[in-house]
DNA sequence: ATTGGCACTCACGGAACTTGAGTGCCAGCG
DNA sequence: CGCTGGCACTCAAGTTCCGTGAGTGCCAAT
């Protein structure tokens, strides 16, 4: 049904359309690509491709543009990761090298991705369900306020200020700190809360209620850290390249970008790293974003994907380039995170 | 030169134009506002106002629109803070009440401001030059990596991972922690770095170099925390209301929103709280943003402004409303921060 | 000083027309 | 049988050409 030449035609259509943003006709197609056949032949092939639903005409007597199905075929079969140029590789390396902080890594990644792909980039902060408690710090701020700091193995810090009815003396604070740490250090976050429930019992009755309060705050901090689904966004300015159709394509996307929950759905379930997921148009799990595509992959040290990162753009995007950039950045970030 | 009626006319023009986004003519003006005079009179007044540079015509035979100078006069002389409705006050209270975290306060404020003003909201994180060191925590992560955590009086936490040539034993870590804390706890961040420079001398020569390393990292953390100029942004989706002129008004703003440095310049030097600063069009310190205005004020407990927050929008914005909202949110946030 | 009247201007919108890229179909050719 | 050149047809987008009306500036009269 679809012989090699028809696939070549489809590929050519996708490439041209992505580049020019204009429907592409048979004549211009044979001019730009050396297909070795005449426009008439291409027209016949196009007719078949259209019948099969891979391309469509915006209106009669216009060129063809790929459908979502067409892009899908293109991505699945007709392209492989476009190798990065040396300059791009260097850019990635230098850009991410200087990062100190986890925050810093995330922010740099976002900017880098946005710059490489000229799209809107999204990087999810590493989820920490797999990480463990590194240290718990307890310190009195004032006579009636206590600060609880939770440090995780991936270097993130969660803090809680707790209002107390009265001050705890230094000794009790030290004991609390010690007991908390023995109970949870090295434990995965998933277990941490359970390990401290019985902690208040070890304390003198006057302190018991206070310790209960602290334990509750600790559990809250852990829960927050685990469910923490922060994302960083960059490259919104690239939205201008979306073209004219403001209300239908840009507005919903801008709205989605404010709804981090939606974004997380967009990034989707983490597949294994080095496997880039592409969602095209209607495949995106959000009705408003039928004209946008998402290219994402997960990242993280080893085979434990920590989180996802990717780019969002119009369905007419440079898939090979975006996929390559997303993949490369994800791998570099993974590497940096496992080093650190 | 400008009698009361002319000022009334200007006010009416600004209000109408802000509402309708269309040039306003003499006839519609007298219809909508009860000025008590005929259109011809208004026309004469308009001619004067135009001569003085307060209003202009986009083209001959169109209505008038305010110039930046016109808005300026309007803001300075013709308006006072529009009192908030009860619903708005309640919204502010409930919205900000539930905040736990400093991050949370900032994020909620941004969303709140964006919602109230239907503009793009910017909230600068409290700068901490005035805050003091609350606690310093030192903990070995692995045998060759040490974590340094700096906790400030305003509840922010800065962390540093330091790669060491070899492990420090628990005892030395404890001593280091103790010495660091005695040296800097309670000290303003501005002095903290200077207070630890001589710290290595107290240690055994083998540990000296390591401690020097830690001290350097500490100084870095302090510096980072002081110069930390993070901002949170919200309401980008409101940009759609900017109207059609995409490339000239929206694109540069989107770009500016990515450049946090630019944003901080926009928010401007902190004036005293409860004094709302308005920058209109060309007054904004960024050539690309000649069509946008910034309404900002500083916030923070007492008379120590910690940071600024505000909204950015088209010059044709609802100044009284925005100013009131910005002011109200700033005062609430200040209150919450001084409570916490 | 204010007003009604009047001639003038010009952006905007619709109608009619032209242009040209692109298509589908078909008959002929290797 | 697949490919090609030719041809008639379609239709979005651009162009030109009014007509309309909101709005202005000026002036003489109150």
Number of helical elements of chain A: 12
SS-based class of chain A: alpha+beta
| Element order of chain A: H for helix, E for strand | HHHEEHHHEEEEHHHEHHEEEH
Q: What is the radius of gyration of chain A computed over CA atoms, rounded to a whole number of angstroms? A: 26 Å
Q: Pair with the most extensive interface?
A: A-B, 31 and 31 residues
Oligomerization status of the protein chains: homodimer
Most strands sheet of chain A: 5 strands, antiparallel
Strand content of chain A: 15-25%
What spatial order of strands do you see in the largest sheet of chain A? Answer: 7-3-10-9-8
State the helical fraction of chain A: 40-55%
Taking pLDDT < 50 over at least 5 consecutive residues as the criterion, the unreliable ranges of chain A are none
The residue-averaged pLDDT of chain A reads 87
Number of strands of chain A: 10
Characterize the overall form of chain A.
elongated
Measure the end-to-end span of chain A.
52 Å
């Amino acid at each position: 049904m679809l012989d090699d030449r028809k696939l070549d035609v489809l590929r050519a259509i996708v490439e041209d359309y992505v580049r020019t943003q204009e429907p592409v006709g048979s004549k211009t197609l044979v001019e730009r690509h050396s297909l070795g056949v005449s426009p008439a032949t291409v027209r016949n092939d196009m007719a078949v491709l259209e019948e099969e639903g891979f391309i469509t005409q915006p209106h009669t007597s216009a060129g063809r543009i790929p459908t979502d199905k067409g892009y899908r075929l293109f991505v699945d079969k007709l392209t492989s990761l476009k190798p990065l140029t040396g300059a791009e590789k260097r850019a990635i390396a230098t850009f991410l090298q200087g990062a100190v902080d986890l925050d810093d890594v995330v922010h740099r990644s976002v900017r880098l991705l946005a710059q490489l792909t000229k799209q809107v980039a999204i990087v999810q902060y590493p989820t920490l369900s797999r990480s463990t408690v590194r240290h718990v710090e307890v310190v009195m701020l004032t006579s009636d306020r206590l600060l609880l700091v939770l440090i995780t193995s991936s270097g993130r810090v969660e803090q809680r200020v707790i209002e107390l009815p009265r001050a705890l003396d230094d000794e009790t604070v030290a004991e609390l700190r010690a007991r908390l740490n023995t109970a949870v250090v090295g434990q995965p976050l998933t277990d941490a809360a359970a390990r401290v429930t019985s902690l208040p019992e070890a304390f003198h009755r006057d302190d018991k209620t206070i310790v209960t309060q602290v334990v509750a705050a600790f559990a809250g901090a852990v829960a927050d850290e685990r469910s923490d689904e922060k994302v960083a966004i960059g490259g919104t300015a690239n939205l201008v390249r979306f073209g004219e159709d403001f209300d239908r394509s840009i507005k919903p996307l801008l709205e989605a970008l404010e709804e981090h929950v939606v974004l997380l759905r967009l990034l989707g379930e983490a597949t294994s790293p080095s496997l880039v997921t592409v969602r095209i148009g209607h495949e995106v799990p959000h009705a408003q974003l039928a004209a946008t595509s998402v290219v994402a992959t997960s990242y993280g040290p080893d085979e434990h994907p920590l989180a996802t990162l990717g780019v969002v753009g119009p369905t007419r995007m440079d898939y090979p380039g975006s996929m390559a950039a997303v993949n490369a950045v994800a791998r570099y970030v993974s590497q940096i995170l496992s080093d650190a």
